[in-house]
Amino acid sequence: MYYLHLVTIFATMSEEINNIVVLTSGGDAPGMNAAIRAVTRTALYHGKKVFGAYRGYEGMIEDDIVELTTDSVKHILALGGTFLKSARSQEFRTPEGRAKAAANLKKRNIDALVVIGGDGSFTGALKIAEEHNIRVIGVPGTIDNDLYGTDFTIGYDTATNTVIESVDKIRDTASSHNRLFFVEVMGRDTGYIAASTGMATGALSIILPEKKSTYDDLFEDLRKAQAKRKTSNIVMVAEGNHLGDIFEIAQAVKKEFPSIDVKVTNLGHTQRGGSPSTNDRVLASVLGFYAVKGLMEGQAKVMTGMINQKVVYTPLSEAISKTTDLDEEMLTIARILAT
Ligand code: F6P
Question: In order of start, what are the domains of the chain with their CATH numbers?
Answer without folding.
Answer: 3-155+276-321 (3.40.50.450), 156-272 (3.40.50.460)
